[in-house]
Design brief:
12 helices, 342 residues, globular, MetI-like fold, mainly alpha
Length: 342
């Protein structure tokens, strides 16, 4: 038995080392993609600036000024040299200097990050909670209320911008109850007793874009939770739990819900990648000053430092979220703790 235990422990340690070894390779691939994608766009930042793109529009660049700017940003160097410069700056915590915004990239991202976190937090939290609760309830109905499933399936198939336009027309034009653009009312001073009013104003501005993200994300959580609940209801331990006299609410929450939520947690990490893409569309549509709108503006201006920093940080965020989701699944389900990390 001791030999078997040692062999199993050695195998788990080898699998754990292999699981950890893949992250440097993923980071290297992520760095390469983040560097290459902005440079696949036609044109360059200075050409776009002189043509009227970005914030510094209609600037007439002389050949001497263009050469100086190219040398300052390192755009006159070969691509391997530019990649080495980007890697060196990133390892030293320097994300570079924006060409079109004329500000440090780190400062730009820190200014926009809270707005995007608020938007994603509202969208994922509401979609996840409502999707899990409604999916568990629909699973217990066993085939009833098919109209709800069909309606959510149709809503999930709509593009993000279509959902946003419909919400603007309904709640911003026909029933003007919510603001349709911006993150706060202009010239609204916050401080002292006005702090609560400012928080309410920020939430009102985040309501429509957050609702759009919720409508887009909710069907996936609902359908997966419903399917997982239906699968768990056919297991033998559910029959045994009912035979022991447990209340149906306890069976639903502690047994069916706890096991059915595991694939939903995995989906939560996977949907983050698509959610970041949806944030670009939603924030641009609602003129919401988050990272999504910054990505759109930087793409128009061909701002390489901003784009490569956003792609790199977004990829790292997705890796971290998936790792945390895996740890959460292992914490909920004891059976997964005995499996090596993959």
């Amino acid at each position: 038995m001791g030999f078997l235990y040692s062999k199993t422990s050695w195998r788990l340690s080898v699998d754990s080392v292999r699981g950890l070894a893949r992250y440097p390779l993923l980071l290297l691939a992520l760095f390469s993609i983040s560097f290459a994608l902005p440079r696949m766009l036609p044109g360059d930042p200075l050409q776009n600036m002189a043509a009227g793109g970005g914030q510094d529009a209609l600037i007439a660049l002389t050949p001497e000024a263009r050469a100086q700017l190219m040398a300052y940003y390192g755009l006159d160097q070969p691509l391997p040299v530019q990649a080495g410069r980007f890697l060196s700056q990133t390892l030293h915590g320097d994300l570079g200097f924006s060409i079109s915004f004329t500000r440090p990239v780190a400062a730009l991202i820190l200014d926009r990050l809270p707005w995007t976190l608020l938007l994603i937090g509202v969208g994922l939290l509401v979609a996840g909670v409502l999707g899990c609760v409604a999916g568990l309830w629909a699973g217990y109905q066993r085939g009833r209320h098919q109209r709800l499933s069909v309606a959510l399936l149709l809503a999930g198939s709509l593009p993000d911008f279509v959902v946003g336009i419909v919400l603007i027309l309904l709640l911003g034009v026909m029933l003007p109850v919510l603001p349709t653009s911006g993150a706060a009312t202009p010239f609204n001073a916050c401080g002292g007793g006005a702090l609560f009013g400012c928080a309410a104003d920020v939430l009102r501005h985040a309501a429509l874009p957050g609702l759009a993200l919720t409508v887009v994300q909710l069907p996936a959580f609902f359908l997966l939770m419903r399917a997982a609940a239906l699968g768990e209801l056919g297991q033998g331990y559910i029959v045994a739990a009912r035979a022991r006299g447990l209340r149906e609410r306890s069976v639903a929450v502690r047994h069916v819900g706890r096991n059915a939520v595991l694939p939903v947690i995995t989906l939560l990490g996977l949907r983050l990648g698509t959610l970041l893409g949806g944030v670009v569309v939603i924030e641009t549509l609602f003129a919401y000053p988050g990272l999504g709108q910054l990505t759109y503006q930087a793409a128009l201006a061909r701002d390489f430092p901003v784009l490569q920093a956003l792609f790199l940080l977004g990829g790292i965020a997705i890796l971290l979220i998936n790792a945390l989701a895996d740890l959460l699944r292992r914490g909920i389900d004891p059976r997964l703790r005995l499996e090596p990390a993959r």
